[in-house]
Structure formats: structure tokens, C-alpha cells
Design goal:
mainly alpha, 3-stranded mixed β-sheet, globular, binds zinc ion
């Protein structure tokens, strides 16, 4: 093997998860947060310009502490992902969370201090050389702080949120970990699957019956727990809405849009284009059903592999996938290729296929070392290879902003998915081009369709459900039966009423509805996908200087509103349909090719 399949965490802190250095670092940071608090208390920004020197020192100190906390958080999260049943790591992460909560209180009080500065002085301040780089971020903090309650009230809310809000999110994890899905296969053998195992099978099993049977068992399993899951979602949303109300608003989209630095018009323009183009998926769904040998396209067929033309997808070994990724990145950006090579060579990536690992994948930045670590499980499918590319895309994004202050590195979820999806597109297209038979090409094109199917229909259904659920939750608790009905209606609308069977308990089975930190964990995905399609189109059109333009865009992702970012770097207006339509057109091209190539197979 050319590349090691395990990551190196020892060079972050040596000695495994219970590293004495990591433990000591946490202790040190906790003490240091006390010093930071004292420095902040002494900072009187409303007084005069001389106080700004103090601000500069405070920000440097803040940077050290937040980087330190992030590094510890990643270190223990990484150990936990790689050894999922190790219960000794949870308490360490809880300690980091507590330190983060202390830090969060400081951030609120910092914002308050910014809000106290009068407009003219603030203008002077952000023009000073020390603060120019973070002028946008300070302005944003100041504006948000002005809308906050007094420090004491905000601190009380934060403390009560530990058990009253975040607690519901972790409670959901507990419920999900106890779900068991009894499943009887065609040979009459009954086995009990965990929710994760069942999900893997129902989204990826090549056999139609297996997917169908697991799907109905999965629906039933979540249905049997709908009372407790329904309570969980009601309380999580109830806390959130009450918190919004305390801050003077019933508008549950205000905070999600602010987090993503995007306007309501942009969101509307994007969904309008998705709605206007949803018809193009109907022939695709019909064709895929036919290729699968089925009458209807069902919920569980969205990512099902098709095996046409006697073609069976062959496993790609990790070394080959890695070299393929590097080579194809190089066609767009040598720097992106070099970063990928570094990640493979220096053991930044954990991909080994073994039991005891957390499902899913992610990239995390290691701010003190200015490196990344990537977690996933590689089994050899084309989908796995594109997941590796996806996570390296995230790592590339971090690598081009790693020298910037933390505020300039905290880009929102919608643009965070840009570099990753772009990387995925590069590899998916190269994959399709490298196909050696029609059968292989059809299969790879279909794999490539997984993204648009998710972004235009599946995620749209989640968004529609969540919007309607929150609307009704404003007036009181929503029953599980009602949530089923809302989810079914959302799926029917998003999938053009074209599925044979639906997944009404999706509101219970999908973790994303239960994430406490980020509300509406859905539309930013669709945004990021379509946004990166626009960049990809530009990359193909521009001769030579794409790399510099791309890096300039990524460096600005936490430096302006999303609308300004698109205007400055792509020359497009996100509040108008044109840009979004050009993304939809690229999807249409793939659908047309898929239909053309597979025509002979079904007629
Ligand atoms: Zn991602």
C-alpha cells in the first residue's frame, strides 16, 4: 500500500485519547479564559481611540484561546470517531463544551462593548490597520449584539440551554442509538439492524427487495418511537422559538438566514428556480426505475446503484482513488492537487474500513498546526472516492484561509459546502469521462445524479417540512400524526408526486432536524451545490487564471454577505433567477445524456 489508511493524531497530542499533554492544555486554557475575561472587563471601547490598543491585544489573546479550544475539540472528537464505543472520551468533550460556553459568554460581552461605541468612532476604528482585515466581522458582531438582551439574560439563556436545548439534541442521539430494525431477508433469516446499518442498506443495497423490505421495517421502527421523538422535536423547536420571541421576533428564518449571511430574496430566488425545474427529474426517475427493473421509483431508490449492461462496479483501491483525485485536481488547480497530496502523504486522513467507527465523514481544521484531519470509511465504491474528494475540498478551503484571523475563517455552512462540492464535481466528471463502456458510463452518471436528486428534491422536502412544522409549532405542540402528514405532503410536492412509496417518518429518522447549533440544516446544502456548479462552469470556461480567482473567492467567504461574494467574484446577482438557472441547466445536460445513453436498454 502506497498511502496509510489511518490518520496521525499523535503529532497533535501524543499518548492517545488520554494524552497528558491534551489534559494539561485544557487545564491551562480554562485558567487562561479567566485572564481573558479580566482583560475584556478592563476594555472600555466607548471611551476613546487609545482604548483600541487594548482591543488589539484582546483580539490576539482571544485568537490563541479559541484556536486552542478548537484544537482540543478536534483532537477528542477525532479519537471518539475512530473508537466510537469508547465511553471515556465523552466526558472530555463535555469539558471542552463547558470551556466553549465560558468563551461564548465572553463573546456576548465583547459584542456589547462594540455596540456601545458610537457610529463615528466605530467607523474610525474599523479603518485602523489593526482591524481593517476584520472590519466586516466586527461590524456584523456589533449589529447582532445590538439586538441581544442584556449580558446577564443572555448568559442565563446559555446556561439553561445546556439542559433545555442542547439536551434535547443529545437525547435524540440516545433514542437513535436504541432504534433496532428487525429485518427478515428473502431466505427467511431474521436479523436485527441498528438504525445506521439499516440506513446503509436501504440507501445502498443493489437488490430491490432488500431495499424495499428494509425501508418498510425502517419506517415501522421509527414509527414505533414517534411519541418520544415527536416530543424531542417539539421541545427543541419550542425552546428555539421561545428564544427568538425573547429577542423580539416570531420569524424563524431570520436567524438561519443571518447565520448564512444571505437574504430572503436569495433564498426565494433559489427555491423558485428549483420549483420551476423540478419537472426535468420525472423522466430521470422513470428511467432509473426501469433500469432497476421496477414499475415505480420509490423513496429507497434515490441512491440505489444500478447494474446495467452486465456491468458491475468494480472496487477502486484507495491508492488508485487517491492518485486519481490528485491528478484531476491538478487540471484545475495545482495548489489544490498539492494540498491533496500532502493530506495523503502525511496521514491527515482516516479511511480504514473496520468496525467501531462512527458512520459518516467530516473534515476538521487543526488551527494551531494549520493542518486538517479528515474522517470517513473507504469501502472502494465511486461514491466513497467522491466523499474523499469532498472532504479534501473542505481541507483546501481551510488551507487558503489558515493564515487569516479566526473571524475570517468562520465561513457559514452555505459557502462551506462550496469548495467540497466543487472538488466532488471535478472527480465525478473525470470519473464519467474515464468510463470504458456504456454500462459503466451510465452507472457513473447515475452516481453523479445522487447530488442533484438530493439537492433539488430530498433536501427541498426537508426545507418544506421544517418551514411548515415551525409555522404550526408557533401555535403549540404538533402531534406525530400531523408531522407525518406534513412530511408526506412535503415529499409529494418536492418529488412532483412521482414516488411509488414515501417516507413519512423521515422527520424522526433524519438527524439533521435535531441539530441544536444550526437551525434549518437543509437549504445551505442546496445553496452550496448550486453555487459550486456556477463556479465549476466558470472554471471550465476560464483559461488558465482560474486558480487565483478561486482562491480569492474562498478567502472572502467570511468577509462579506453571500450576495456580495457572488457579485464580486462571479459577477452574478443571487437574487435573480439567471445564476441559479445556469446550475439547473448543467443538471439537465447530465439527465439528457443519461436518458440518451440508456435509451436502448429499455426500449
Ligand atoms: Zn461537506
Amino acid at each position: 500500500m502506497k498511502y496509510k489508511q489511518n490518520w496521525n493524531l499523535e503529532n497533535i497530542f501524543p499518548g492517545g485519547y488520554d494524552s497528558p499533554q491534551a489534559n494539561a492544555r485544557l487545564k491551562e486554557l480554562n485558567q487562561d479564559l479567566g485572564t481573558l475575561a479580566t482583560e475584556l472587563a478592563a476594555l472600555d471601547l466607548a471611551k476613546d481611540v487609545p482604548a483600541y490598543h487594548g482591543l488589539s491585544d484582546y483580539l490576539k489573546h482571544r485568537e490563541t484561546d479559541i484556536n486552542g479550544l478548537m484544537e482540543l475539540n478536534v483532537f477528542w472528537t477525532a479519537h471518539q470517531s475512530a473508537d466510537f464505543n469508547n465511553t471515556a472520551i465523552g466526558p472530555k468533550l463535555a469539558q471542552v463544551s463547558e470551556a466553549f460556553s465560558t468563551f461564548k459568554d465572553l463573546e456576548i460581552s465583547f459584542g456589547k462593548k462594540l455596540a456601545e461605541i458610537n457610529d463615528d468612532d466605530f467607523k474610525t476604528l474599523i479603518a485602523l490597520p489593526d482591524f481593517k482585515e476584520i472590519a466586516f466581522n466586527l461590524t456584523e458582531d456589533r449589529k447582532l449584539a445590538a439586538e441581544q438582551l442584556d449580558e446577564k439574560s443572555e448568559s442565563i439563556i446559555n446556561k439553561l440551554a445546556i439542559d433545555g436545548f442542547t439536551g434535547w439534541s443529545t437525547h435524540y442521539d440516545t433514542i437513535a442509538s436504541q432504534i433496532s430494525v428487525p429485518y427478515t431477508d428473502d431466505n427467511g433469516k431474521t436479523q436485527t439492524l441498528s438504525a445506521g446499518q439499516a440506513l446503509n442498506q436501504l440507501t445502498g443495497a443493489p437488490d430491490n427487495n432488500t431495499r424495499k423490505n428494509i425501508m418498510s421495517a425502517y419506517e415501522k421502527a421509527w414509527g414505533s418511537q414517534e411519541a418520544v421523538v415527536g416530543d424531542t422535536l417539539n421541545h427543541l423547536a419550542g425552546f428555539r422559538l421561545q428564544n427568538y420571541k425573547l429577542h423580539g421576533t416570531d420569524d424563524f428564518l431570520k436567524h438561519p438566514l443571518e447565520l448564512n449571511r444571505m437574504s430572503r430574496q436569495t433564498l426565494k430566488a433559489m427555491w423558485n428556480v428549483v420549483e420551476a425545474n423540478k419537472g426535468m427529474f420525472i423522466p430521470y426517475m422513470d428511467r432509473k426505475a426501469a433500469l432497476l427493473g421496477k414499475q415505480t421509483y420509490d423513496w429507497q431508490d434515490q441512491t440505489a446503484p444500478i447494474m446495467v449492461d452486465g456491468y458491475e462496479s468494480k472496487a477502486i483501491d484507495y491508492d488508485h482513488a487517491a492518485d486519481f483525485i490528485v491528478a484531476n485536481f491538478r487540471k484545475f488547480s495545482p495548489k489544490m492537487a498539492d494540498l491533496a497530496q500532502t493530506a495523503f502523504d502525511n496521514q491527515w486522513i482516516e479511511v480504514e474500513d473496520r468496525p467501531g467507527k462512527q458512520p459518516g465523514g467530516y473534515m476538521e481544521e487543526i488551527p494551531e498546526r494549520q493542518e486538517s484531519r479528515i474522517f470517513l470509511t473507504y469501502t472502494g465504491t465511486p461514491d466513497d472516492a467522491s466523499s474523499v474528494a469532498h472532504e479534501i475540498g473542505h481541507a483546501f478551503h481551510y488551507s487558503v484561509v489558515k493564515d487569516l484571523p479566526e473571524m475570517r475563517r468562520s465561513y457559514a455552512m452555505n459557502v462551506a459546502e462550496t469548495a467540497s462540492t466543487f472538488a466532488e464535481l471535478v472527480v465525478a466528471d473525470a470519473n464519467v469521462k474515464s468510463a470504458t463502456s456504456v454500462g459503466e458510463k451510465i452507472n457513473l452518471l447515475d452516481t453523479k445524479m445522487n447530488n442533484p436528486v438530493a439537492m433539488f428534491m430530498n433536501i427541498r422536502a426537508r426545507y418544506l417540512f421544517e418551514t411548515n412544522f415551525y409555522k404550526e409549532r408557533l401555535n403549540g405542540q404538533v402531534t406525530p400524526e400531523r408531522m407525518d402528514a406534513l412530511m408526506l405532503a412535503a415529499q409529494k410536492w418536492a418529488f412532483s408526486n412521482h414516488l411509488g412509496t414515501y417516507h413519512p417518518h423521515f422527520w424522526a429518522s433524519k438527524l439533521h432536524f435535531y441539530i441544536d447549533e444550526i437551525p434549518f440544516y437543509n437549504f445551505p446544502y442546496t445553496f452550496g451545490y448550486l453555487f459550486s456548479l456556477g463556479i465549476y462552469a466558470k472554471a471550465q470556461a476560464s483559461g488558465g487564471n482560474f486558480e487565483d480567482q478561486y482562491i480569492a473567492l474562498l478567502r472572502d467567504t467570511a468577509n462579506m454577505s453571500t450576495e456580495d461574494l457572488a457579485k464580486k467574484h462571479l459577477g452574478v446577482d443571487l437574487t435573480k433567477p439567471d445564476f441559479w438557472q445556469s446550475g439547473a441547466d448543467l443538471v439537465k445536460k447530465d439527465i439528457d445524456e443519461f436518458l440518451k445513453l440508456s435509451d436502448d436498454l429499455v426500449h
